[in-house]
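pasting for ref
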Amino acid sequence: MGSSSLHVLKGINFNIQEGELVAIMGSSGSGKSTLLNILGMLDVADEGEYILDDIPIKNLNETKAANYRNKFLGFVFQSFNLINYKSALENVSLPLYYQKIPRKERQAIALHYLESVGLKDWATHLPSELSGGQKQRVAIARAMASRPKVLLADEPTGALDTKTSYEVMDLIQKINQEGKTILVVTHELDIAKMCKRIVQLKDGVIIKDENINQVLASEHV
């Protein structure tokens, strides 16, 4: 900012294998959002390397970054980031529009993913007609529709009550069980324990990285 710079991440070094479900934890200011932004190609690291699916992610202009994001990544946010004037089906089919998939095929794929999150009957509804949990399910269906290699979820349960949070985590666990690689940024320990590995950040460094016995969300819903 101006002439002052802030060193956020200080030599992070870790690998995530295909099919893992990893929680990234840390208090506000620990660097977890910056890490997620770099992994999501929304920010660029000043140095070091980031390799995704054997491809070094570097020197990307915005067009190339957007193409890579479309190809590799699905995003789920705390605030859902749905387009208010578009139906659930239109929201889910949006990434496919950018992939230049024909309209009829887009709708069929979007409907399939809405069905997979239990919202086929809500396809024509606007976000304003959905509950918080339903909105997040639409957002997850949208993230899945482009068949990404990795799902990045930034506080996906942050705006939800406990029961709804566990329902969303149950869905995330089921998607992971099908083989999808998922990173969940969270500051809630009960949510992190529903992942299979917890990486803890503090002041820009990893202070703990351990595999855990996963708590099944379905047992708590």
